[in-house]
Amino acid sequence: MSAEMDLTDVRREYESQGISRKDMDSDPFVQFGHWMQRARDLELLDATAMTLATADLQGRPSARIVLLKHVDSEGFCWYTDSRSQKGRELAANPHAALLFHWRDLSRQVRVHGTVTQLPAEEADQYFYMRPEGSRFSAAASHQSALIERRSSLENQVLRLRASYPDGDVPRPPEWLGYRLEPDYFEFWQGQDNRLHDRIVYRPDGSGWIMQRISP
User: Fold this and answer.
1) 3-state SS class at 139
2) For residue 16, pLDDT beyond 70
């Protein structure tokens, strides 16, 4: 199979109800909650998945999918190994972007902001809520580090299980929670003929200003 692929004719039409500012909540967190709940009510696959984009000090971006674990009026939270590429980039450059995509609803939400670490006790609380296998995997892995073969990871899990036969493996100190505090929201609704709806929110003193932008 050739590495060359012509995808210029790949497209689909968006057929969905449009959005207007009068239908949107004045608080973008509340509006996000409405859209997230709709996706969850429909039991869309991986409704809480979000693309997390970070950049290093030279401005070179990288992106990956992570899972949203908590959202409130202070921001969007997730957990990961701080030694990973995203963890290292956030330590050097704490600005990041999130993207939620619900294909079956023809909807996207973009969120930009500044990232801070959550307190260790919050990381503890969530870590011990995770399934046992996930806890051992997190404890065994130095995320993003080079390894010779998969078996080295599997053997490390076995060693940890032998050391903690009760399953109570401790949270690695590098396994932390992060919160993105937004300074920009965009709610995107696909429409016919690519004339999509885009409603954005920006901080305005003590609240948010809502505006429409071109597709």
Assistant:
1) helix
2) no
Max CA separation in the chain (angstroms): 60
Mean pLDDT of 121-130: 96
Distance CA 167, CA 161 (A): 7
Report how far apart, in Å, the C-alpha atoms of 26 and of each of 19, 49, 200, 213 are.
14, 25, 11, 16
Q: Measuring CA to CA, how many Å separate 192 from each of 6, 15, 39, 142?
A: 24, 6, 21, 46
> DSSP 3-state assignment of 136?
helix
> Rounded to the nearest 5°, which phi and psi values hold at 85?
-60, -45
Residue 79 confidence class, pLDDT cut points 50, 70, 90 = very high
Structure tokens, 156: 């490390």
pTM of the model: 0.91
CB 80 within 8 A of CB 88: no
Q: Distance between CA atoms of 110 and 112, rounded to whole angstroms?
A: 7
pLDDT in tens, 158-181: 999 999 999 999 999 999 999 999
Helices (H) and strands (E) in the chain, counts: 5, 9
